[in-house]
Structures are given as C-alpha cells and as structure tokens.
C-alpha cells in the first residue's frame, strides 16, 4: 500500500495488504510514548502509527452500513485533533497540547474529516481540519504526507476526498493557480510504455514516473471527485486507456481504471512482494482496486476482484483488524454488495466486534443513501513494520492496504 496505510501494515506484518496508506495507515507517529489502549479505540494493536487512520475507516465504513457507532468511539477520534485542526497518527495524551514535536500529517487529518463529515454534527472540527489542509497545500496544487513534503498521489487523493466530503469543490481549492487535479494529472502516466494509464506515487530521483497500483486506485477515485467511501458509477464507463497529451481528470480516471483492470484480469487480485519472498496476494490494494473500478466503471467492472475478495479475504481481515474489515465494507458499499453477506461473511458484525458496541446496527433500508451525499462524505472512497520491522514496514507499506486509511481509516 502506500502512504495512506502505513500503519495498519504494522498491525498485520504477517499478512500482505493492509493500510493504506504507502505507509499504510497514512499516519506518522506522535512522540508521546507507549500508550494504553483507550476504551473507545477500534482494534487491539498499538495505535502509534495508525490510530486515527483505522478509527476513521471503521467509523466511515459503519456509517455506510447504517451503523451508529458508540459515542466514545467518535469522541476518541475528535479528541485526537490538535488546536490548529490537524491530526497526528496517534496522541497518547490528547489532553496535552500539540507542539512542534507532534507529527501531524495530511493523511490522518483527511481521513478523520471524511469520517466526521459522514457522521454529521462536527462542522467545527472538520472546518478547522480543512483550513489546516488548505494551509498545507503545495504550489503544484497537491499535498505531501507531511506539510512541506513533496506532493504524492495518495496524500493528494485522500485530501480531495476530505474536501468533497465537506462540500468543497476540489477544483476550486487553488495554490498559486494550481488545483489538486493539476497535481494528480502531473503524476499520471501516458497511454504508452510500461504502466500505461497508471498513476505514480511520486516521481523518482530522475523525475521519472513509475506505475503504482495503490496510488492508481487512490488517483482514480480522487480524479472522479470522490473519497474513501466512494460509490459505484450508475452507468458503466469504459476502462480504456486513450488520448494523448495531458488528459482530463475524467480521462485519467478511465486510464487508471484500465491499468487496474489489466492487473487483476488474470487472477482477480493484485500481488506484492517482500524482499526475499515470493509474491503474495495484496488484499488491501485489491479492495481499493474494487472501489476504484466500481467508481469509474460500475459494479460489472469490479466483479472479478470483488468475487476473489468474497472468497479469500476472511483470514486476512481477521488477522489485520478493523482497517481491513472497513476496507472490505467500503468495497461492498462501492459495488452495492450486502456487507452483511459478503461471500457468506457478515463484515459489519466483524467490524463492530473490534471496538465498542455501536448505538445501533440497523441496516439501511432499500434505496436509502447511507453516506452517499457529498455532505455526508459518501462522495469519495500501511507501509510497514519496525526495527527490522521498520524496514519491513517501509517495504510492506508500499505493497499493502487507514486514509487510509479506513478506520484508519482504518
């Protein structure tokens, strides 16, 4: 995965694919030391790298399924916000004011915005967070993982989702005349050569772009103006890479979807490889791919990887925790699949069991748009693991799947 899921990967080192962000849960650690797990937090692993990401993904996924989360779960997330509006990956002592040592980041902040906007009643918190995100926008129109860092597709995409969730028009959020879409299109590969149509995470040291599946899934959704809880297209769009020169955002989304569709055409899933190991299924990025394909081309386009997830993802999700369950719920949401019968598995029940009991678990009635309005956040859908784990974390984050990213996101 990549920056969006840096942390979740840490919680699931043995299994490939959890957040999201590149660094899987999309979050940087806050220097507050070891933490006792709070009662309102989802998951039972150390939240140092992905607490806000996985909490955001969990709350957002529950919302799409018609679940009203426990008040203490929501309070935990709002309590993580710094006075300036930003969020760090995790703060063990939220009563202590944020200072320069607290490593706030765009991924955690944008994921929290999407979750809180969907739940409603948090306009003050989301307004401050969006103001902070705007202050961290780069001159190319995009965002890096941390303020001042070079723009990357994943961070820019999760921020686009936050803007859309709060009713902003991402194309109108400018820095030096550049919008987030200018940054994304600058990271899109042409329809020729290796990785045709994909998005790169960032240019390499030589300024060259290389296809990145995690970045592509994020870029497709953002180019469509959606976020983590993206909804499927009502009319299927062709997943063809076409056009020359700089594409429009819609064409870049179609090109990226074509790349992803090609990647999953043979087996139905993406793969990732740790150093010295053989390729393994990448469950998290495959779930993100389902969301991206559905958002661009409708449920039919996402059918093959969706069916693969329904048959094979249970063990991964059980080991990986709330961000993984949330990613699967969001994949079901994007494709119109019942998350309470996902290949015979009740994803909602499994997700709910990783945190405090929700206030209600009623499924949305037919036709009810649970979290699909721009205002509610329905408009828009982990690197690795330390010591030696730190190297693996960096390795796994680039390959795996908090935004998010989910529930953190995840």
From TrEMBL:
Ranges that cross the membrane: 381-402
InterPro entries per record: Terpenoid_cyclase/PrenylTrfase
Region (Disordered): 353-376
Signal peptide: 1-24
Domain of life: Bacteria
Keyword presence, Endoplasmic reticulum: no
Matches recorded under SUPFAM superfamilies: Terpenoid cyclases/Protein prenyltransferases
Entry keyword Nucleus: no
Keyword annotations from UniProtKB, A to Z: Membrane, Signal, Transmembrane, Transmembrane helix
Coiled-coil intervals: none
Protein name: Terpene cyclase/mutase family protein
Organism per entry: Streptomyces similanensis
